[in-house]
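Provenance

Sequences were taken from public entries as deposited. Structures were produced by running a predictor on each sequence independently, with no templates supplied. The record for ATP-binding cassette domain-containing protein from Deinococcus rubellus is shown for reference.
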Amino acid sequence: MLKINQLGKTYGDFQALKSVTLEASSGEVFGLLGANGAGKTTLLRTLATLLSPTSGSASVNGFDIVRQAQQVRASIGLVSGGMGLHDRLTGRETLKYFASLYGLSAGRTEERIETLNQQLDLKDLLDIRAGGFSTGMKQKIVVARALVHDPPVLLLDEAASGLDVLARRTLLDLVTALHSQERLIVYSTHVMSEVEELCDRVAVISGGEVLKVGTVNELVQDSGESNLERAFFRLLSEQKLLPAQKKGVVRG
Ligand SMILES: Nc1ncnc2c1ncn2[C@@H]1O[C@H](COP(=O)(O)OP(=O)(O)OP(=O)(O)O)[C@@H](O)[C@H]1O
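Predicted structure for ATP-binding cassette domain-containing protein:
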């Protein structure tokens, strides 16, 4: 479903992604865990074909992110950055507008809105204008909008960031509700508890590099630490303090 092979991205002289290699399958909620500036947004936007990679390759749903960008775009839903909702449009109008951009027929659009209504419990949101939404309501419609064309891959980039406690709970419950065998959800965050609650596996990213991939339990056990936060900081300190030794271990 998702294959990333030695993917690199530079901004001018600055290398934001350094040879990232990862794989994830449908049915997984796959976490990208990293501090601010680790490279999570760069990685997700490159996978979403909004940025061009400088080196390496990746495929999403079997499509190459450079040579088959259109097919990749049709295969993903992306939630990243601002919400970008039009205050005067109701939830239903927002979903219909995006469905039309994806070329869905009127009948298929109604079907999808009904399915999303059931999955995400949209109810009144469909008939209220976005200008009157709470933050949690807005985030629900933003997630529904990303799923209107029923993509097999959903990319969520720090989607809970900046939400109040109620809106954040709504989002985490949505991700749980969307967890299904047919879909891969890639969930980027810097919040350990979100990874612990949601993710089947997680990649720890720092300085544009993948430091470790595994389940939360594997990461904690392999580190010899007592919890994910401590395991995370141990990985980061090893990266900073022992680069030569770490490289030696990888090569050996
Ligand atoms: N357009 C750009 N030009 C130059 N440097 C950039 C650009 N975008 C991001 N960077 C740098 O690339 C690195 C990775 O940024 P990125 O936004 O991918 O990280 P992140 O893990 O998503 O962090 P955050 O959660 O803060 O967005 C950072 O050092 C950032 O300053």
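The chain has one domain: 2-251.
The longest strand covers residues 14-24.
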